[in-house]
Every structure is written in C-alpha cells, then in structure tokens.
Amino acid sequence: MLNKRNLWPILGLLYGAVTWGLIWYPYRRLGELGIQGEASTFLTYVLCLLFSLIFLRKHLKCSRASLGQLVIIALAAGWTNLAYVLAVMGGEVMRVLLLFYLAPLWTVVFSRTLLNERLDMTGYLVMLFSFAGAMVMLWSPGGGMPLPANQAEWLALSAGFMFAFSNVLSRRVHGASISLKSVSIFAGVLVLSAVPMVTTPEKFIVIAHLSNVAWMWVMVTAIALFAVTLAVQYGLAHTPANQAIIIFLSELVVAAISAYYLANEVMTVQEWLGGAMIVVASLFSGKLEKGG
C-alpha cells in the first residue's frame, strides 16, 4: 500500500525508469549534431562528475579495504553506461533494451560464482526464461544462429552483462557510501569514454566547436543522469527488490512508446514474444533477490 513513507522511493524509481526509457533521444540528437557517442558520453559524464564533487563531496567516504573493489565496480559500471549509450545511438531502442534486460540471467550466474549462492527453482526459472526469450527474439527466419545482429546489439548485451557483474560485486562492498558508489560510476564512464577520445584527437576538436544547441542537449542530459543516479540509489535503498524490478520494467513501456513516436521504430511479433519472456524472467529475479 502506498503511503508517505514509501512514496518518495517509488517516485525515485519511476523517475529512473522514465529517464532511462528516454535517455536515448538526447544522445541521438547529439549524434545528429555531429557528436559521436564517445564524445557525447565523455561530455555528459564530465558534468555529472563535476556536479557530484560540488554537491556530494561531504559524503564521499570509503574504507581502504573497499578501495580496490570500488575501482573494479567503477570500470564495470562505466562500461555498462558507455556501452548502453553507444548501443541506443546505433541500434533499435527496444531490441537494445531487451538485450540489456538479460541482466537477471547474468546476475544468477555471478551470484553463484562470486557469492557462492545456491540456485533454487526461481534461479533456474530466471535463467530459463531469459535465455529462451533471447533465443526467440534473436532467431533469424533464415535459420541462422540466434545472435545479436550488429555492433549495437553486442554492446547492449555486454552492457547488461557488466551491469549484473557490478551489481553483484557491489553487494560485497560495505565500506563505501552510496554517494561514493555513484561518483565512482561517473568516474568509470569518464575514464572509459576518454580512451577513444585520446586515441582520436580530432574528437576533441569537435567538442571545442560545439554549438549552443549541442551544449544545451549536453547540459540537459547530464542533469538528468546525475539526478537519476541519486534517485535510483535512494529508491533501491528503501524499496524491496521484488517491487523495484516491477517499477523498473516500466522503462520498457516508456522506451517502446518513445521509440515509436520519436524514431518510428516498430517491433515484430517475434520480438515482442521474446521480449515478454525476458520481462517474465526479470519479474522472477525480483523474487530471487527477496529470497537472498
């Protein structure tokens, strides 16, 4: 039942779902303005990190024992965000999101290997429905192997994989504040997006000549990403996992509607069927977290 105590956490998660369901659009607009994915990611997360150092500096606490794991989390989460941005800029929004939502499958695997958690029936169902949904969605009418069709889809798959890894590893880190974990994510994205920037210096030239419209999109996107990171962290800290995953799934609805109206993207019946199976797996994963 909704009350004042859980209203704000739920609103935080809903804001997160809506934002992540729409975040592809400003990045595509930046792409249309000639700013490639690595450059736009670099710029938006520079601002996110700057906002964090201004508003969260009093909460950046970490024990020495957790520092090494925090660096690994930063790089894993950094790749998650960078790969996600590159995927939605170059691929079909819903296919990218559904491949990303295979994260529950990888979470079960990592929980077993890294945390030594035993699988119960729910865990096996998560693996079964996730894998079967992916096979249905990716199956080619020509009889080819059910694999991602392009670079964007491989990036989406890897983003979900690293998202699961960073989340499971984060459960082992107790000596770092939520604020510091958020900042580490921003830093990780910044570092990874800077690598192709350094190897291709002309991308810095593009940044130096950004138009006012481009800077507007960069600023709006950075503010949204900074706010959504804090909102989701707050929501997750005060909402049961099985309830949170249901709220998060509304991201798919937002993405489907926005992709249809803003990008004229329509999914096939086969893709919807596979996607529905992946959604079922995500719902089961909420019960899995509750049981753990």
List keywords for this structure.
globular; 292 residues; mainly alpha
Q: Can you give a write-up of this model?
A:
The chain has 292 residues and is an all-alpha fold. Helices cover 79% and strands 0% of the residues. It has 14 helices and no strands. Helix 1 packs parallel to helix 13, helix 4 packs across helix 9 (178-199) and helix 5 packs antiparallel against helix 13. It is globular. The two termini are 23 Å apart. 43% of the residues are buried.
Helix content: over 70%
- The total count of strands amounts to 0
Indicate the mean pLDDT: 84
One letter per element, helices H and strands E, the order comes to HHHHHHHHHHHHHH
State the end-to-end distance: 23 Å
Major pleated sheet: none
Low-confidence segments, ≥5 residues, pLDDT <50? none
Please tell me how large the radius of gyration is. Answer: 19 Å
**Can you tell me the overall shape?**
globular
Structural class: mainly alpha
**How large is the share of residues in beta strands?**
under 5%
Count the helices. How many?
14
Describe the structure in brief.
The chain contains 14 helices and no strands. It has 292 residues and is mainly alpha-helical.
